[in-house]
Amino acid sequence: MRLLKKNMPPAAATKLGYTPPDGGWGWAVVLGAFISIGFSYAFPKSLTIYFKEIQEYFSVSYSQIAWVSSVMLASMYAAGPVSSILVNRYGSRPVVMVGGVMVCTGMVLASFGKSIVHLYLCVGVIGGFGLAFNLQPALTIIGTYFQVKRPMANGLAMTGSPVVLFTLAPLNQFLFDSFGWRGSFLILGAIVLNCCVAGSLMRPVNKTAGQKPKTEPAECNGAAAEEAATADTGAQSDNLLTEENQSEGRSQGCVHRFIDVSLFRHRGFLIYLTGNVVMFFGFFAPVVFLAPYAKHQGIDEYSAAFLLSIFALVDMFIRPTTGFLGNSKWIRPRIQYFFSFAVSYNGVCHLLCPLASGYTGLVVYAVFFGLAFGMVSALLFEVLMDLVGSHRFSSAVGLVTIIECGPVLLGPPLSGALVDIFGDYKYMYYACGVFMLVPGIFFFIMHYFNYKRLDEEKRQSMAAEMRTCEETVQLKMSQDEKADG
Amino acid sequence: MTASWKQLFFQILLLVFCRHINTKTPGPTPPPLVADSPLPTDVRSAILKGESHTEKVEVVNPVNLTLECTWAGNRDKQPNITGLWRKDGEEIENSLLMVQLENEQYNLRRVFNIVNEESLGNYSCLFGNEARIDFVLAAPHIGEVRDKPIVGYVGDTAVILCKMEESKPKPSTWNWYRTNGTNKEQILTAAEPHRYKIVNEGEKTKLLVHNLTEADSGSYYCAAVYPIGTTMGHVELKVITFFEPLKPFLAILVEVIILVAAILLYERSRSKKNYAAGNETNDQSNTLTQGENNESEGSSSMRQRKV
């Protein structure tokens, strides 16, 4: 029996139909995803350096120029489903390369811009769509290359965001001093073209190698139970829920062409979606207001900016660490609880922030907030993959991003309004804390029930499988006896 | 005693009329404003603790300014000490006098007529050779002006901004100058309306230079005009052609193309090798799986028999 286990690929991969390599070229793909995800998240944030000069050049108000960032972020999230459809149809590589070329074109056109609307269209819409074509495929391809080491791979890829932001911020300042905003946009267009390099690394995974031999007696040896510790809850649940199997058989054809809307009947997906929609109202606002809050407390501009650097550094190191922890054998089977903990911890952090006094208090807050933010970011897409499985992830992430578009855009302005109304930052922090703590607790409760249901369904289907296995083995035995006799 | 009552009366006057005046020192008297002299008067005082002290005084309108210096003296407190006033390092005529020690302090006071830009400068009161307090009289300094060069492109428009801090008084008007060799020439929009445009908005001013050429590179000065004088801010403009950023753009473009081509070619060569080897391994794996099936069947049947 031990002999069999060694040659046995994990049962959870049955839905994928092949064994993900979990290494080898997969790490090059992680590098490509690192670059793509990094540019997707960091690029809109890093453009804010140019806003002051552009604002004077076009003689517009600050809120009008801030719209460039918002339009870019909105396009990036809204184009999620389009991206998912294209990835389902053509795979990750072409979409990422097209995305890179799109952002480059957008920035080059913007460098010749003669009005602010020109910038909205070129940087905002075209750039945003291009970044969406980078983000979705990068996340999807990790799921195709990794199964056992997937949380680690996800954690490493999501580290791209703070690293690229850290690099782009001083680089943008240098470009601005040397070339002004027009030249900088031109050169940034070229820099962003490196996403095409990332795309070329995203070789489609070889699905013919290591195909699982479909031997039924081998399954019966309890190997399936052994691999439960390392397998997806999602893939297993898809495996075992017979009704879903049937509906998937029907929608298999649709999945490859359009987007999988049957996800809205998926329990785990709905839990994730509702929790995230509430969470994103309070997720980004504290980052935006960290420096202004510090200045409001009387701290000088450079120390306030240093707080953001501390936050980014802590964020950078905690993301791979979270990935590594999520991969460990204690956490992996119950990774949804880890995510719920991270979200709740975020909420607690914000609720305690008004208690922080002076610069040291704010530094402590920045460190803890960096930890919290990094943990949630690293796990954000890993838990979605865990819930719906890698093969449906592409559609899931497209649907999730377009629905999250609203809270992401409304969050910072609403928080800003809170600050303006009360004249004090602490109410904004309380609000953000509540917006993160409530989904965290919601996740804990709902996933507790979800795990119970999944375990029950697994037990039921395993019992059913054992029965069918015993029957086939008895059949074979009787055949052997007949042959002998 | 009566002097301090007068000071208290003026203090009340001050609180009632002039709440926005900001004295930065813990001076003994807040500045009173008396309206019946041709020039307004103002008082600035400083107490010296230590070797020397510098006080910045912002002057906007012509004023009769009284400067007061107070010194606690050193260890051996002499009853008399020489007091002297200096302007910009040069001794002011007839300002030397003997100062008595009153209430354990030495006091120096003098009234100065600050009427024009030449009256501004660095005024110092000296006690003997030991203690000095400096008052730096100047018009409000321009707060926001870019210290690094502004980059503009040939044929494009450049916007140069100078802004006074909102807490400081607004200038009467703004002027713009640019250096022509060593001279500063005022930019007059009337002379070249299609090239220069000046937009003054209270505490900020914008100079727009249209149709840039490389000759437009150089130093520009924005001058905030106050009744007492003007303060200058310096901005540098650098005009470059579009080929400047185009060079790094093309360099990075070439790098991207090379990397993409290298990665794709490497992949193609690997897949050709795998295809050749793949045919062999396919046969091997087929025999392996058959072997596995036989083994599994054998052991499972063995298990069954044991049970």
TrEMBL record, chain A:
Q: Where in the cell is it found?
A: Basolateral cell membrane
Q: How does it sit in the membrane?
A: Multi-pass membrane protein
Q: Which positions, given as ranges, span the membrane?
A: 25-44, 64-87, 94-112, 118-146, 183-202, 269-291, 303-325, 337-357, 363-384, 396-415, 427-449
UniProt keyword annotation of Transport present: yes
Mind telling me which PROSITE patterns this protein's record contains?
Answer: MFS
- The answer to whether UniProt assigns keyword Transmembrane helix to this entry is yes
The lineage's top-level taxon is Eukaryota
- InterPro entries from the xrefs? MCT (IPR004743), MFS (IPR011701), MFS_dom (IPR020846), MFS_trans_sf (IPR036259), Proton-linked_MCT (IPR050327)
One Gene Ontology term of the molecular function aspect: monocarboxylic acid transmembrane transporter activity
Start and end residues of each Major facilitator superfamily (MFS) profile domain: 26-451
What Pfam families does its record include?
A: MFS_1
| GO CC, any one term | basolateral plasma membrane
Q: Where does the protein principally reside?
A: membrane
What's its catalytic activity? 4-methyl-2-oxopentanoate(out) + H(+)(out) = 4-methyl-2-oxopentanoate(in) + H(+)(in); 3-methyl-2-oxobutanoate(out) + H(+)(out) = 3-methyl-2-oxobutanoate(in) + H(+)(in)
Q: Which UniProt keywords apply?
A: Cell membrane, Membrane, Symport, Transmembrane, Transmembrane helix, Transport
The family line of this record is: Belongs to the major facilitator superfamily. Monocarboxylate porter (TC 2.A.1.13) family.
Q: What name does this protein carry?
A: Solute carrier family 16 member 7
Native species: Sparus aurata (Gilthead sea bream)
- GN (gene name): LOC115585754
From TrEMBL, chain B:
Going by the UniProt record, its keywords in alphabetical order are:
Disulfide bond, Glycoprotein, Immunoglobulin domain, Membrane, Signal, Transmembrane, Transmembrane helix
Q: Where is the Ig-like domain?
A: 32-125, 140-241
Q: How does it sit in the membrane?
A: Single-pass type I membrane protein
Which named protein is this? Embigin
Q: Give a GO molecular function annotation for the protein.
A: cell adhesion molecule binding
**Organism superkingdom:** Eukaryota
What range does the record give for the signal peptide?
A: 1-23
Does the record's keyword annotation contain Ribonucleoprotein?
Answer: no
What is an annotated GO biological process for this record, any one? cell-cell adhesion
Q: What is its main location?
A: membrane
User: What sections of the protein cross the membrane?
Assistant: 248-266
Regions of biased composition (Polar residues) lie at 279-290
Q: Which GO terms describe its cellular component?
A: cell-cell junction; plasma membrane
* Localization per Swiss-Prot or TrEMBL: Membrane
